[in-house]
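Q: I'm writing up a methods section and want to include an example of the input and output format. Could you take the sequence below and give the corresponding predicted structure tokens, formatted cleanly so I can copy it straight into the document?
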Amino acid sequence: MENPSPETVKTYIENALQCDLVRVEGDGRHFEAVIVSPAFRGKSMVQQHQLVYGALGDRMREEIHALSMRTFTPEDWASKSNFKE
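A: Here is the clean output for your methods example:
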């Protein structure tokens, strides 16, 4: 199985979860992501990460070896100017 690109992982997340922003970097096996989604409202960080893992499903076992992520609600993202471009 071919290793996914960061863009492919980004597409997997965007197709399964309503997102305002998704950024993914990685080497084909290990990835880092920043994800901003209204679906995260009212959820703990663990619950937010579970939503992302759920969006990726079996790909986490089969294609993606490791995923490090930072998750934000749109409001949290807007208030954290140090994370903006």
